Each structure stands twice: as C-alpha cells, then as structure tokens.
Amino acid sequence: MNAQPSRVVLLIEDHADSRDMYAEVLGASGFDVLAVENGADALAKASIHPPSLVITDMRMPGPVTSLDICRHFAESRVPVIVVTGVSPGPEQDAAREAGCAIVVMKPFGPDKLVVLVQRLLATNSPATQRPTATHS
C-alpha cells in the first residue's frame, strides 16, 4: 500500500490579504496550510508541525529573513518557494544560493502557485528522489 506524501505547506506572508488568499486556494486544492506572518513564527510552527514545502515572501519584517528560511529548510531538504515583487537581480540570486527551489514573480494567478507546489512535492517525494551518489 502506498502512503500519500505529506501535503503540509508552511505559508509565510506578512500581508494578511495575500496570506488569506494563498491559504484558501491551497487549502481548496487539498493541502494542509500552516499560515504565519513572519519568519520567527514560521520556525516555531515548523518545529511542531514539520512542513513538506514552504512558501515565503522575499521581504518580511522581523529578525528572521526569507534567506534564513531558505537556509533552514534547505538543510532538511524541504523545498522553498520564494514569492517576490522585485525585478530579477541580486535578491533572487541570493535566495537561490540560500537553497530556495523556485522564485516566483508577483503578480501571478493562484492556480500557478498550486501547480508549482504540486510539482515540487511530486519531485521531492521519497519515491521520486534519487540517492545523492547517483547525481551527475
């Protein structure tokens, strides 16, 4: 019997309207969404409910930045999607270097976010991962 992969998405967004919209769309698509407004709350929530994927805004208030989030979850191989309204440049490069899987430019439709989450969870499930030694 195949166990269904975890579908817990940790959503970090400081704008309440955006956070509510993303959470509603992801929830309606069958994901368990843990929505928080900053990086510190995200780390606290993740220590209790480990996510299978993280979505974070590029620019957040507080001491825990999106780059901190990327680094933290890259260590445990949890994919991170960074959402930004900033034109491509050094911030996006820094996010990728910190371990983020995808940078998504605003504005975008909520359906695009669902597709990205589904794709990342499918490619990061244990059944589709190859052992590190086989990577070329």
Summarize the structure.
The chain contains five helices and five strands, in the order βαβαβαβαβα.
Question: Any overview of this molecule?
Answer:
- The chain has a five-stranded parallel β-sheet with strand order 2-1-3-4-5, sandwiched between helices.
- Helix 3 (66-75) links the parallel strand 3 and strand 4 (80-84).
- The chain has helices spanning 16-28, 39-48, 66-75, 90-97, 110-123, and strands at residues 8-12, 32-36, 53-57, 80-84, 102-105.
- It has a single domain, classed as Response regulator (Rossmann fold, 3-Layer(aba) Sandwich).
- It has five helices and five strands, in the order βαβαβαβαβα.
- It is an alpha/beta fold.
CATH topology: Rossmann fold
CATH architecture: 3-Layer(aba) Sandwich
The string of secondary-structure elements, in order, is EHEHEHEHEH
Bulk shape: globular
Give the CATH H-level superfamily. Answer: Response regulator
Average pLDDT, to the nearest integer?
A: 85
End-to-end distance: 32 Å
Give the neighbour order of strands across the main sheet: 2-1-3-4-5
Characteristics of this structure?
single chain; 136 residues; alpha/beta; Rossmann fold; five-stranded parallel sheet; 18% strand; disordered N terminus; disordered C terminus
Layout of helices and strands, plus pairs?
Layout (H helix, E strand, L loop, with lengths): L7 E5 L3 H13 L3 E5 L2 H10 L4 E5 L8 H10 L4 E5 L5 H8 L4 E4 L4 H14 L13
Helix pairs in contact: 1-5
